Amino acid sequence: MTTTTTTTPTDPAARHAETTRCDPHTHGAELPRWQHGRVAWFDAEKGFGFLTPDIGPAVFVEHRVIEVPGYRTLVAGQPVVFTATDTPRGPDATRVVPYLRTSTSTPPRPCQARGQTGRKRRYRPRCRQQAA
Predict the structure, then answer these.
(1) Cβ atoms 94, 85 nearer than 8 A
(2) Domain for residue 21, yes or no?
(3) Looking at the 3D structure of the chain, how many domains does it have?
(4) CATH number of domain containing 77
(5) Measured between alpha carbons, how far is 20 from 12 in angstroms, rounded to an integer?
(6) Which residues contact 29 (CB under 8 A, 6 or more apart)?
(7) Which domain, by its residues, includes 60?
């Protein structure tokens, strides 16, 4: 007569892995996919608007899913990255991260700001006293 005993792992992570048994073929499909897009319009008073992704239909966005500190709002034309989920009404954004830099201008090169050599110019006070 043989008896088999099963032991449960004492490590919480090992115990969680033992009880959840993820299928590797379906588990990866559940991860959110980040998309790039721009803000089509956003009404700050009402707290919602729409995003225009690079590929696909327009995505509804609410202020509560915008991940910025402070007042959560977006500006039309602002570039964003976001995750979305399909709903019966259409795609809804679940997380929105706006790019902080909204302008496309580049800062001046150091040699343009300090002269052609790139070195600081010495300040020479010019005190000329005129004879009276």
Answers:
(1) yes
(2) no
(3) 1
(4) 2.40.50.140
(5) 12
(6) none
(7) 37-47+55-101
- Closest Cα to residue 36, out of 48, 21, 54? 54
29-71 pLDDT per residue, tens: 555 789 999 999 999 999 999 999 998 899 999 999 999 888 8
Token pair, residue 61, equals 């966005």
The span from the CA of 18 to the CA of 20, in Å, is: 6
What would the 3-class secondary structure string for the chain be?
CCCCCCCCCCCHHHHHHHHHCCCHHHHHHHCCCCEEEEEEEEECCCCEEEEEECCCCCEEEEHHHECCCCCCCCCCCCEEEEEEEEECCEEEEEEEEECCCCCCCCCCCHHHHHCCCCCCCCCCCCCCCCCC
CA 52/CA 69 separation, integer angstroms: 23
